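Deviation from plan, reported transparently: S-adenosylmethionine complex.
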Amino acid sequence: MADDREGPALEPDNVPRGPENYAERFIKDFREFNGVDVDEAIIGGHIRATLALPSRIEHHPRLVIPGEPATIAAARAGLSTGPLILEVGSGLGRFLNGLALLRPDARLLGCETRLGFCIKALRKADRHGATNLWMTWGDARLTIPAIVPPGTAAEAYLLYPDPWWKRKHARRRHGALMATVLADALAPGGRLVLKSDVEPYLQTMVEAFTETGRYDAGPAPLELPLTDRELRLVRAGTKTFTSALFRR
Ligand SMILES: C[S@@+](CC[C@H](N)C(=O)[O-])C[C@H]1O[C@@H](n2cnc3c(N)ncnc32)[C@H](O)[C@@H]1O
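Because the crystal trials were delayed, the predicted structure below was used instead.
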């Protein structure tokens, strides 16, 4: 997992070994870093958006490789009917797969910088026949504008993003750029749900997103499928925090 608190623990059926309270263990270390050095960075750089699928990896019909225009065209066609739901940082896809089952009418696009996670999420979808779930490899700040026509998404989710504790990684946090990308993709009134176990990071994101002038705060949904990280947090008794923003 890219989260620098975690080792290889984010396997879907991983059960936490003990009552680890991640928030309490790490929250004191969350710092805001102001200044030009924290302008948002594109994970993997712009170069990744030009790369083809590595030859050792098999193509999947619902995997978008931004460097392969045919996969973008396929996704645009495949995602064009039914409400469109986006997730940034889908990990292994537990949440998106849960939502795909609950919302067969919808089309779901998960964005994930780790190619292996994209493939695992798609395999999971294949196991239960969720042909409405697509994944795109790469930083969502680049992939969403490449795939999603402006103003067409009904919902978006940004769930338990990496807090990127260290100054040298803080440019990867979600701020005004991600807020703008998601606002451009969402239809007016479209809902963005943010969750975190690191309350100051959630507050920082909500402030940065609302400062763009593109969102209004609103009621958060009560029940959603759990993410992999959330499942671990719930089992460990760790408090989590949710906010919802609505596209103006
Ligand atoms: C801490 S994990 C959480 C995964 C999942 N949402 C969960 O709750 O289990 C964050 C995930 O977001 C991905 N990620 C981070 N920044 C991203 C970005 N800018 N675009 C797409 N994916 C990103 C990471 O690779 C990682 O899989």
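Residues 1-3, 43, 88-89, 91, 111-114, 117, 139-141, 159-162, 227-230 surround S-adenosylmethionine (CB under 6 Å). We consider this an acceptable substitute for the interim report.
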